[in-house]
């Protein structure tokens, strides 16, 4: 039986998986933005993030935002693959990006590696902020966030150090 508390895969591997899966999609954003194959990779990319959300330190509400991002972006990808109206799928994707921003910023703020924190905060804020202006700004303004998230995954793989284990504070004699 698998032990839910045991880590079977390193955090480095969990950060490299979405990096590898999302890199071709980011390249497609620049070369052929209408490529449907990017949506297939995008679905698998987002599913791979489930493992990262579960492992990075973050408040439970921030992890819930990360899971919500994955769910909404997988939904948006499947809608695009099945030729559902682009505007509908895009609005769902942007809603998911708000949740992505919450999770990325929150998990980056507790990182002990300053580059992870800085790039994560900028990435999360960019993703979330674009969602509020995506109806007036072209998608090209979202491209830097795609590059930044790749950098963030790489930094997580190379620099991330888990927070030290916290033991429960000894019980005060007055409270006993």
Topology:
Blueprint: H1 11-31, H2 37-55, H3 60-81, H4 86-109, H5 114-133, H6 143-159
Helix pairs in contact: 1-2, 1-6, 2-3, 3-4, 4-5, 5-6
What does this protein look like?
With 176 residues, this protein is mostly helical. Helices cover 70% and strands 0% of the residues. The protein contains six helices and no strands. Helix 3 packs antiparallel against helix 4 (86-109) and helix 4 (86-109) runs antiparallel to helix 5. The longest helix is centred in the middle third of the chain and has 24 residues, at 86-109. It is globular, with a radius of gyration of 18 Å. The N and C termini lie far apart (38 Å).
Shape: globular
Helix vs. strand class: mainly alpha
Span between termini: 38 Å
Q: Approximately what portion of the residues adopt beta-strand conformation?
A: under 5%
Helical residues, percent: 55-70%
Largest sheet: none
Features:
mainly alpha, 176 residues, 6 helices, 0% strand, single chain
Produce a short descriptive summary.
Helix 2 packs antiparallel against helix 3 and helix 4 packs antiparallel against helix 5 (114-133). This protein has 6 helices and no strands.
């Amino acid at each position: 039986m698998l032990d839910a508390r045991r880590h079977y895969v390193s955090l480095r591997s969990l950060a490299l998986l979405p990096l590898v899966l999302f890199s071709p999609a980011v390249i497609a954003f620049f070369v052929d933005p209408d490529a449907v194959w990017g949506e297939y990779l995008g679905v698998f990319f987002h599913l791979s993030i489930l493992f990262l959300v579960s492992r990075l330190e973050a408040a439970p509400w921030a992890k819930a935002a990360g899971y919500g991002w994955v769910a909404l972006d997988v939904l948006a990808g499947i809608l695009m693959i099945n030729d559902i109206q682009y505007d509908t799928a895009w609005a769902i994707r942007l809603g998911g990006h708000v949740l992505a921003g919450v999770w990325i910023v929150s998990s980056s703020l507790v990182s002990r590696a300053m580059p992870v924190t800085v790039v994560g905060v900028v990435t999360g804020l960019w993703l979330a902020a674009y969602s509020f202006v995506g109806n007036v700004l072209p998608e090209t303004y979202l491209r830097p966030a795609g590059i930044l998230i790749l950098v963030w995954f790489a930094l997580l793989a190379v620099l991330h150090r888990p927070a030290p284990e916290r033991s429960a504070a000894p019980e005060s004699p007055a409270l006993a």
